[in-house]
Amino acid sequence: MISGRMNASIRFLVWDTIPLCGLLGGALGEILSLRATLLVAVVGGVLAPGWLLASPLRGLRDLPVN
Question: What pTM, to 2 d.p., does this model score?
Answer without folding.
Answer: 0.63
